[in-house]
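From the pipeline queue, job 12 of 40. The input is one protein chain; the requested action is below.

Action: predict structure.
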Amino acid sequence: MAMQIIINETGATETLTMINPDSGVDCVVDFIGNTGALANGEIVWDDDHGAYRCDQDTYDWWERVIAAHEAMEQRIDGLEIEHGKDTVQKAIGNSAECDLEDVPTYVNRALNDAFGLPTLIRPMGKKGK
């Protein structure tokens, strides 16, 4: 289910979505929730408005992270069709452990190395940078 988010600074309502390519289901609440962001106060539920709330910087960061993860998943799906799931998953296993926002960068680097493609992507960096 998509997340309706009220931006604290402006009161504007924005939407975050993240569609699982295998099921077609919007898994954005699970994706964000699994990081602890819904429990640590980064994004909070507003009962009065029936929506989540967060600061603009937090919303912008999550929007970028989600887009990067969705693009990575689409790329993985395409490479699995071309090279086989086991080969692609083995390449992904060679990616470095890193922060959530940098996962797509390091996975893409590992895929580029495995399949002989140039690496042009740099890590996104921490929130607020």
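Job complete. Residues 3-115 form one domain.
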